[in-house]
Task: structure prediction
Amino acid sequence: MTIPYDDFLWQVYGGLMRRSRANRAQSTRSSGAVNQAPSRQMCNPYAPMELMDESQLEDIHQASLKLLCKVGMDFQSPRAVDILRRAGAMVDADGLRVRFDPDWLMQTIATTPKSFLLHGRRPDRHLTMGGNSTAFAMVASTPNVSDLDRGRVTGNYDDFCNLLRLGESLNSVQLQAGFPVEPCDVPVNTRHLVAGAAMARLTTKPIGGYALGRQRMQDVIDIVRIARGIDHATLLQQPCMHTVVNSNSPLIYDGALLEGAIVMAENNQPVIYTPFTLAGAMAPITMAGALVQQNAECLAGLAFHQCVNPGAPAMYGSFTSNVDMKSGSPAFGTPEYSQATIVSGQLARKYGIPLRASNANASNAPDAQAAYESQMSLWACMLGQVNYVLHGLGWLEGGLCTSYEKIILDAEMIQMHQAFLQPMETNSEALAVDAIAEVGPGSHFFASPHTMSRYEKAFYSPLLSNWSNFENWRDAGALDATQRANKIWKQMLQDYEEPKLESSIDDELTDFVQRRTHEGGAVPGS
Result:
């Protein structure tokens, strides 16, 4: 009896799917319960997109230099102002306003490294910052955390640690940017010590600290140095942590942040100077004007960093977006945000400085809006050849909440971008002329030897996506993507194994934290 072609096709397809699911289940059992792409740093093989021609980009550059020369910026740290004055910057009579000669400024930032190696606890965790490399970090600094079971709760130490564990387990995460949620139940004066020690113990990936004064910054540097088992001389040669210094847009650098930045530069650790420029609020309503201000504030910070320690690594930070002019609320993942990110890439490459941007969205739930705004942000990072994607996983509510489910959604999107950036094979086997000839007109490739020898590794293998038909999806519980993400993060936490420190290092870390806690931690003014 002849089987109708459609029936035959679905029999073959169904057999392939059953075999694929069985093989995937076996692979999952042998390598962990959650299927992930391999752990690797992404390299972008494509030329970056350019939204502005050279003349337009030069207009942005020259307008920024004019702003810094004629208007300048306020540096709210006498120590920082003195460093700039001694290096050759112009300081007004008020002792706060610093202005920059254009030629002096460009000569000063020229000592910024074009790329650098950021060191983790293990050699396989080291990251290249610069060139065509891209690294993704967890969300940082949110005051709240949410999941489908509990809803939204205030940040706390237990969730802080679980989010560190999740970031360590996800191959899409290359570093921790800071606190994946603020542990609000830990006293403020010792929070950096308790949280820093947890970061040192629970993750092997490079971590970030907060430049909230000299003492906090130095404490976290010491924690990272102890966890890596290195001395101070090695630390100076091997950057192993980072921080972000935001300008108070427009045109101010905060005193406490500058003090922390000084400690980082003195210890040869990278600072990401990032203006917080929202067009229509803290920056001009035109995106070109907002970029002029962003660029000026960023260049001033980068110049300051080189005045502290010429040759110290630093990064150009881009975080220009817009606000909803009806409500005044920040908007992220917008077309304007994407344009600003791509132009920021052009500016950073013009200066030869590594670039940071973010995977941001303004949704209040891990829903379709969160996904499409994040994809807009991620594509801008890919097209603009961003080197460091901060807030890469888990960001919600414009940065006010970390979502467990959104972390998994972001991990899936990042894995898809990683797969997209893999070069396409074009050898004779991949061109498949013989396979096409063998199948011939009007047949199918499901059961061809060419397909059967390659199908298990032919295409992207999802972490989260469900590609089964409606009936199979319904019979499996009819879970949407957010509900599936809920199951995945729970499974990953269940499978997590702590990367234990050597006992002597763990003891040294415990002694340091206890001593600094006994001394009062970060006292006011430090």
Notes: The mean pLDDT is 93.
